């Protein structure tokens, strides 16, 4: 067990920063938690709901004396947020972040804060909500947090940050930044792009009204709308920052979709059946991994509220 | 209020047929419910869990004396299931079904049972599970059920079937079969095809292991795996039976995806931001319509079970 951090500073108090603030206060009661957000409204709200012990009006004041600084701003704001800390940091403070892309973020932070120890991280946990009211202390429990330290990162610092995330309830994994970006392109970035696309396509059809799309969404579409309700700024930044991996996975997806399209066109039921059978195995593994639960519909069985308390069937 | 059915027969006792059996027994205690399924195992199981008052060993015995027969088999088995009832039906029995496509199913049933009153229907409700154990009586509550009667269908029969579905808890809508097939292509069929595709793409990548895909699925991918765990037979049939509308919507989707792909390639953040902003409105409307709930993550906030009983935040 490494030495826990005495003072954690959080920059950006949205869903992720707010959740870290709450989780740190709950899990590390000895640690002081300070924070800053660029928006005055967010700072006010954060004070009301206690996302940190103290919310400062400048980034420099927030990181003063901190051992760990976690940047929780949109991916393309990381460089600027880091630059604002220059001169205000303890020399041995560890700088980390929670950005959804790692290679570009690591580069931006390192360039803005030369000489400082930078250990990028990405907690793979989230909801479609954002802002200071969206956070909750349990967000990271049983979720993975991926650390992408550079080859020359000090092992002690990596160990300290791993323990911090373990204290948040997360399971920690170490990975190369570039590999992280490819894995997340598949498991998160491209799924989001596809969801945004199909929701847009549905809204734009001439022969089907938007009212009809909304009414009959229970057939599968509503899951896509949930994903496509995620924050536009965050996701614009993700796609621009992880361009290469996203485009590579998209290319593969388009080829695979064409193959199924062809099977439909030519009435090739066997190809469809085989493909649909393969994908079930993936679902089973995810449930076994504990990354989801097997209740059909995730409790949406409470179609009228009445069935809410029934035990899961599977 | 029309005369309720005295005797309802169900052919096919999977998720939908089983749910109708349970819901009818609960909502219409005066009605007799009989049923048949092609599989002996399913019939045995259905008897154990009481999906109907009596489970018969032949289709003819199941529909003997019934006023309403509901076919609940895969879309491309509808014609055969209907043909098996020939000669066993009361002349004034109403034949309905629950198939996910309507034009092709209406044609198959009408051809198999000339002279019989056929009123096709589609309850827009489901889960990714199938089989006799998947059913539950509340499945249709507050969900839409779309009836697609032919122009010359007797109004009294349409009214009786509407009341039946209202008794199941559903909200009933009347629509042309062809229009139904286009609407559902958008809200259900194409989303399923896309989900099957991306889960397949992810499983096949060389540089990302399947274990990694599964571990980091919480980033968005797991919602797709749930959809892609749906029954392969059912979905093969849907795509083959609603080919035209599915291919039309797929074409539009591919064009829209290409546009976003181009925006990423050229770093056009404004196009991405605008598109992502538009899609949020659709989500809000679905929640207002009551077709989903606003809790982030649908109760998956119980990352460790502990937060399970917290009230929704939004
Ligand atoms: N949401 C998820 O599911 C998820 C999951 C894992 C990781 N992440 C990553 O976590 C980071 C934050 O995401 P989030 O969902 O928490 O976003 P969020 O709820 O929108 O919060 C971001 C906050 O940062 C503030 N901010 C922006 N630029 C700033 C700056 N230069 N200095 C200080 N504050 C600044 C924003 O203020 P304004 O409102 O004034 O812009 C906003 O309050 C992103 O990098 C994202 O990629 C998100
Ligand atoms: N699942 C959904 O989300 C959903 C939603 C709305 C509508 N639907 C529609 O509802 C229908 C049934 O779907 P489901 O999910 O309930 O499927 P399911 O759980 O797979 O049940 C279908 C049952 O029908 C049996 N069957 C097949 N051919 C038959 C025949 N000729 N005669 C008698 N029984 C036969 C099957 O037996 P075997 O196992 O021996 O094949 C099986 O037990 C499909 O048309 C589907 O499009 C489904």
Q: What is the chain-wise order of helices and strands of chain A?
A: EHEHEHEHEHEEEHEHHHHHH
Q: Supply Rg of chain A.
A: 22 Å
Largest sheet of chain A: 6 strands, parallel
State the low-pLDDT regions of chain A, or none.
297-314
Helix fraction of chain A by DSSP (H/I, runs of at least 4): 40-55%
Quaternary state of this entry equals homodimer
Number of discrete helical segments of chain A: 12
The proportion of strand residues of chain A reads: 5-15%
* CATH topological fold name of the largest domain in chain A: Rossmann fold
Q: Please give the CATH architecture of the largest domain in chain A.
A: 3-Layer(aba) Sandwich
What does this structure look like?
Two copies of one chain form a homodimer. By secondary structure, chain A is of the alpha/beta class. Chain A has two domains: 7-175, Rossmann fold (3-Layer(aba) Sandwich); 180-293, 6-phosphogluconate dehydrogenase C-terminal fold. In chain A, 48% of the residues lie in helices and 11% in strands. Chain A contains twelve helices and nine strands. In chain A, the strands form two sheets. Chain A has a six-stranded parallel β-sheet with strand order 3-2-1-4-5-6. In chain A, strands 7-8-9 form a three-stranded mixed β-sheet, covered by helices on one side. In chain A, helix 7 crosses helix 9 (221-227) and helix 7 (177-204) crosses helix 11 (243-265). The two termini of chain A are 39 Å apart. Mean pLDDT of chain A is 92; it is low at 297-314. The complex binds NADP nicotinamide-adenine-dinucleotide phosphate (2 copies). Residues 11-17, 37-39, 42, 72-75, 77, 80-81, 98-100, 122-123, 126, 130-131, 231, 234, 238 of chain A line the site of one NADP nicotinamide-adenine-dinucleotide phosphate (NAP).
């Amino acid at each position: 067990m490494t030495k826990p951090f005495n003072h954690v500073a959080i920059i950006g108090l949205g869903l992720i920063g707010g959740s870290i603030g709450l989780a740190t206060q709950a899990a590390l009661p000895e640690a002081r938690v300070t924070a800053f957000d660029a928006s005055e409204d967010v700072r006010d709200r954060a004070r009301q709901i206690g996302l940190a012990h103290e919310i400062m009006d400048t980034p420099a004041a927030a990181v003063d004396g901190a051992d760990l600084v976690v940047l929780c701003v949109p991916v393309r704001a990381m460089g600027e947020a880091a630059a604002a800390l220059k001169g205000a940091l303890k020399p041995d403070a560890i700088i980390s972040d929670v950005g959804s892309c790692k290679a570009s973020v690591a580069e931006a932070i390192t360039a803005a804060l030369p000489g400082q120890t930078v250990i990028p991280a990405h907690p793979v946990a989230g909801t479609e909500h954002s802002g200071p009211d969206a956070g909750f202390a349990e967000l990271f429990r049983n979720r993975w947090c991926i650390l992408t330290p550079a080859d020359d990162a000090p092992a002690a610092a990596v160990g300290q940050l791993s323990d911090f995330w373990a204290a948040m309830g997360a399971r920690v994994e170490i990975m190369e930044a570039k590999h992280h970006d490819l894995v997340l392109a598949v498991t998160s970035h491209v799924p989001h792009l596809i969801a945004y696309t199909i929701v847009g396509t549905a809204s734009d059809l001439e022969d089907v009204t938007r009212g009809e799309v909304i009414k009959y969404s229970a057939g599968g579409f509503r899951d896509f709308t949930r994903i496509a309700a995620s924050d536009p700024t965050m996701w614009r930044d993700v796609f621009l920052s992880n361009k290469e991996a996203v485009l590579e996975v998209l290319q593969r997806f388009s080829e695979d979709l064409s193959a199924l399209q062809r099977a439909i066109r030519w009435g090739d039921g066997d190809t469809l059946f085989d493909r649909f059978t393969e994908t079930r195995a993936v679902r089973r593994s995810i449930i076994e991994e504990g990354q989801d639960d097997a209740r059909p519909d995730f409790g949406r069985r409470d179609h009228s509220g009445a069935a809410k308390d029934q035990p899961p069937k599977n």
